[in-house]
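Collaborator request, handled under Task 6.
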Amino acid sequence: MNTTERPPLEGMKILDFTYLLPGPYGSMMLADLGADIIKIENFNNPDLMRISAPFVDGVSAAYAHINRGKRSLGLDLKNPGARDIVFRLLRDYDIVLEQFRPGVMERLGLGYDEVRKASPSVIYCSLTGYGRTGRYAERAGHDINYLALSGIDSYSGRETTGPALSGIQIADVCAGGKNLAIAVMAAYIRRLAGGGGAFIDLSITDSTFALSAFQAAGFLAGGGEPVREGEILNGGAVYDYYRTADGRHLSVGSLEPKFAEAFYRAIGMDEMAAPGLLSREELAASKRRVAEIIASRTLEHWRGVFEGIDSCVEPVLTLAEAVESPPLADRSMLTEVRNHAGRTLRQVASPIRVGGECTAREAGAPLGHHTAAILASLGYSPDEIEEFRKNGAIN
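Structure tokens returned to the collaborator:
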């Protein structure tokens, strides 16, 4: 969308109590699409994302990115005055996101039942590691644990070394954060159609397990369990990463016969262009030969070889190379966002373009940067705001 268009989620008003990565990533997606979001943080126990280096104008670059488009309200949620502020906000902000363990919001007097009394049509999304029900409901967890318990790690990585850590948080972002955004938008559309409010109990582990739909389908239909390097997409075929002579890597996705033929001919393995069915041992031997050939030349050499060949072979780029690469640079996947000090920050743009370019708003700000303005907009007088400050309700 460009700045003259109405953002698709304009009118959606959210109170965001989430922290770290899963919830804030999902609410960032909603903010990028136009939702009005107030991020509420306990200034006595702030979001740990704030201490992630490097820092620009006193704010973590990661925090400024993940929390862009959100105003910052610093409250001590255990203070009765802070709860009064939240309930006044609920007159207008009727979507609540929270990410605490089950029972925390209830003890603060901000659980779904209490909030619904003040805002009957509220959409209340509770994002937790294992859901609000079941034997693991109270358990702590992180991205690595959700991937482990979902079964995905059992068939990811190498036979000899086991599961491999990913460079990004797959469960937190691809499962938890994105499903939060989808769930909230679905409930919002339902409410617009007259369906009323909703309570959403969203588990990151449930969401991670759902990512295994392709692999689980065969197993649930009576097939064997997937194993590391035993499936077509996890190293059991030519589809894999190969090290080059200069220590870089080449990604080979030549699955379909036409792509496989083009790949094998390009590296001089014509005998594999139409090999017929191979035993696992024969396939392993051919992969070793592929690895030897790829390892004999540099990445730049192979980029030249495959430049004009339609074979699904691409270099593994560094982040610095990726931001300048045609698939990202040509599609404006970097955006510029102003921070609280007026500085322009480069950030990753939203990939969701509804009606054109998507322009992110202000970068995530210092804790409580918007507190006074938010309270003034709620009708609190300067004296009342100062009293909240003296009583420790706000920072």
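The cover message to the collaborator said: "The chain has two domains: 13-211+330-390, 249-315. Residues 249-315 form one domain. Please let us know whether this matches your experimental observations."
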